[in-house]
Amino acid sequence: MSGAVPASPVQTAAPSPGPPLWLLLELTYRCPLHCVFCYNPTDFARTGAELPTAEWLRVLREARALGAVQLGLSGGEPLVREDLEAIVAEAHALGFYINLITSGVGLTRARIAALKDAGLDHIQLSFQDSTREMNDFLSSTRTFELKSQVAALIREFGYPMVLNVVLHRLNIDHVGEILEMAEALGAQYVELANTQYYGWAWLNRAHLLPSRAQLERAEAVTQRFRERVAGRMQIYFVVPDYFERRPKACMNGLGSVFLAIAPDGIAMPCHAARMLPGLELPSVRAADIRSIWYDSAAFNRFRGEGWMKEPCRSCPERGKDFGGCRCQAYLLTGDPDNTDPVCELSPQHALVTAAVERAERAGREGPGPGAAREQVLVFRDHRRSIPVVTEVPARR
Amino acid sequence: MSDLPDTVKPAISQGLKLQWEPAQDAHVLLYPEGMVKLNSSAGAIMSRCDGARTLAEIVADLEHSYGLSGLAADVRAFVALALQKHWLELRE
Ligand code: SF4
Ligand code: SF4
Fold first, then answer.
1. Of A273, A336, B43, B58, which alpha carbon lies 20 to 30 A from A134's?
2. Nearest CA to ligand 2 atom 4
């Protein structure tokens, strides 16, 4: 949307950014589960070829030299990449803390042994995809068997068993069963993350947003479960921000700590940033990480406060939440510079309350005939925000 | 937790990693969802928690390295806090 008031020059001077402490490599969009319905961009089939091994290794070296230290390896399903072990080995040699985010499909004993050898630090087992996988999991022994074999391997190789499950209207009522399954898998940490509405989830938002009553029931169930397993399991329940009064402080602001690289080498200040209009995202094929991080227009676009509009611009809380999510602001209001409408102070907050009301109505009426039916809905785990704290960890 | 016996052997918790980061000029504790930048005393204590040394040995080593005495109470309090945060765990 045009009409953006140019930011005053006084405010545009962004403080000079620190290093990209957090690097996420989306190694591939391929996934053996055929879960094209995930947070990957809706036009992911049109993206270019995946980076070859040597390019990923160069990205690792350059980012580490700038001070990057946290490394996430995701996809798609990163295990699809046969060079995953080589990438992990290089990352380990460079001193990264390496977290693999996987559905577990393809995690054989041989591979986990090789990954452990290569220096993998952590594994997050995710239900990162479709409703179908969740249904299979809840109903079919085979899927449960597969997940429990993988979970057993994860524990056997000395990794904490961390399970991430994406919640939405169609499965949130099963949260009790999901938690029991997690317990049966020997999960020590469970994150119940509500869907975030961008990518495919945005397209299906009407079918996915739970009602407030569902949410409250699920939280109550989670709380009872938590008390029962206290000391053995830690459970995090992430409420969808549509139900909050303030937006999430996304990644300390775009371009402040987080750098994601898509399979084709496109560098992004947030894993959803590909959707933002007018953002010319640089490619690691054409530029080095230093110039991408410090000099590219895309990474400077949302640094500092110069880009902000009212009410954020003069809001005393702007240093706390950075005006919320740019992608959400764009999707809901058409302008990525607007206040995230999740914020009560946003003049467009009604867009969010209206969506919640629609969900309430749908919740009362139940899914209409055929509503949301086999429309294999849409997910992939991704954190709404990745906290990088300096004094106290956000959890654990 | 302040009644931690001298003989416990604290270690960095499973799945966490402690390392010196020149770019941040600090010890950082890394874990899946984030990182903790430790101040210098926390870094000095944590980097000695290797699961082999007892709390008493860690205190003695710190006092020796920094030429100080009477650190026991502070170290004990920090270790208790770090245990509570699951940064450290106890080894037998
Ligand atoms: S107006 Fe903007 S800065 Fe203020 S609380 Fe809302 S989103 Fe945050
Ligand atoms: S919260 Fe941040 S990371 Fe998530 S979509 Fe919005 S801008 Fe991107």
1. A273
2. A384
